[in-house]
Automatic annotation (TrEMBL):
It comes from the Bacteria. Residues 38-139 form the Glycosyltransferase subfamily 4-like N-terminal domain. Keywords: Transferase. It comes from Streptococcus varani. The lineage of its organism: Bacteria, Bacillati, Bacillota, Bacilli, Lactobacillales. This is Glycosyltransferase. InterPro entries: Glyco_trans_4-like_N, Glycosyltransferase_grp1. Signal peptide: none annotated.
Length: 332
């Protein structure tokens, strides 16, 4: 059995969770000993499609005509398309119908969480579907003083300067407005949002925030990976992710794996695997400010419980679940 892993729009999506999920799939397949390729012209038995653009749709139909098995990865839902790009709310109903068509045509669906599984099933999709985490490579994260020094030096942070980070695309859905509002109430703390997307793709209200309509203690320096990003994940005082909608949230796993204090919006996707024992959960700006201040005052420490969550979704465990999914597909 050989698997074709497909990601359309790689240049745009490589900075997103979907882009990182593709590399996690490669790692998982390597660990499971299953051959894989990204070469559309090569030989393969199963195609695993991560995106839903026109080329993805064409590949789905072509593979089906050739008698190959097709897995759609349910990263995307109508709900998480909203409040993202310009016009996304107007297009969401059409995108929902389009996604439903692709999910119904596939032989099998893998989606990152029980929550996203329920959403896709609510569209009337009868295709077999299982929830498998995107996974996390625990070896890439964790306490590393050298990487933390790189992070603090890059952003010119004094040793006693409290700093809170977030990571994500510049989407309203990610809670970027609340991120800034929390920073306004905590001028003694540096807030850094790691991530980016082409600004012409986002609404003007969000573009203005990123371009400078924010307090002096907020920075939007762009996308980072490697030592700066990993050093930020473990070396910041807290990871604050006020997203309104996710299908899992790879950055949350990365923060847990980094033994980081985590502050999240309490949303349905976390039900069953994230709760108050491993993260601070809130619903509004006041909640988030209170949670972050508790962490800075050392009144709460849930890092070990958070790390245990990351361990439960390690790439090692995910590799076995993916391998089982591919075998199920081949038996259909």
């Amino acid at each position: 059995m050989k698997v074709l892993l497909y990601l359309e729009g790689k240049t745009v999506l490589q900075k997103s969770g979907i882009g990182r999920a593709l590399y996690h799939q490669m790692e998982a397949l390597d660990l499971a000993g299953i051959p894989h390729t990204t070469d559309l012209l090569g030989d393969y038995d199963v195609v695993h499609i991560n995106t839903y653009g026109p080329r993805s749709l064409r590949l789905l139909h072509t593979a089906k005509r050739q008698g190959k098995k097709v897995i759609m990865h349910g990263h995307s839902t109508r709900e998480d398309f909203k409040n993202s790009f310009i016009g996304s709310n107007l297009l969401a109903p059409l995108v929902g119908k389009y996604l439903t068509h692709m999910y119904k045509k596939a032989d099998f669906i893998i989606t990152p969480s029980t929550y996203s599984k329920k959403l896709i099933e609510s569209y009337g999709v009868k295709t077999p579907i299982i929830a498998v985490s995107n996974g996390i490579d625990l070896n890439k994260y964790g306490k590393d003083e050298k990487k933390e020094a790189v992070f603090r030096e890059y952003f010119q942070l004094e040793n006693d300067q409290p700093v809170v980070i977030c990571a994500g695309l510049y989407f309203r859905r990610k809670g970027i407005e609340d991120f800034v509002k929390v920073a306004e109430q905590m001028p003694h703390v540096r807030f850094i949002w790691l991530g980016s997307i082409a600004k012409w793709m986002i609404p003007s209200s969000i573009r203005k925030i990123v371009n400078g309509n924010h307090p002096e203690n907020v920075s939007f320096p762009g996308f980072f990976k490697g030592a700066v990003f990993q050093g930020a994940m473990s070396g910041a005082d807290a990871f604050f992710f006020p997203s309104y909608e996710e299908t899992e949230g790879i950055v949350v796993l990365e923060a847990f794996a980094s033994h980081q204090h985590v502050v999240l919006r309490d949303i349905p996707v976390y039900e069953g695997w994230v709760d108050e024992t491993c993260a601070e959960l809130g619903q509004n700006v006041d909640d988030f400010v209170a949670s972050i201040q508790k962490i800075l005052d050392k009144k709460v420490d849930k890092r070990e419980a958070g790390y245990q969550v990351a361990q439960s979704r390690s790439i090692d465990k995910v590799s076995h679940q993916l391998a089982d999914a591919y075998r199920q597909v081949m038996e259909l």
